[in-house]
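Hey L., structure's done. Input below.
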Amino acid sequence: MSDDRLTKLETRVAELIATTEDLSDIVAQQADEIARLTNRVRMLKEREAERELTDGASVPLADQKPPHW
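Output:
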C-alpha cells in the first residue's frame, strides 16, 4: 500500500471518527430533550386531569374512550 493511499485512508478514518463523535453528542442531547418533553407532557396531562375533576367531570377526558368505540 502506498504512503499516499495510507494517508488518505487515515484521514478518512479520522473524519469518520469525528463525525461519529459529533452525532453521538447530538443523540445524547436529543435524548435529554425527549426526556424533558416527556416529563412536561406527563405534568400537563396530570394538570388537565385534575382540572377536569375539579370541574365536576366523573372521568377525565383523557381516560374516556372516543364515542366511535
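The chain is about 75% helix and 0% strand. The chain has a mean pLDDT of 88.

-- N.
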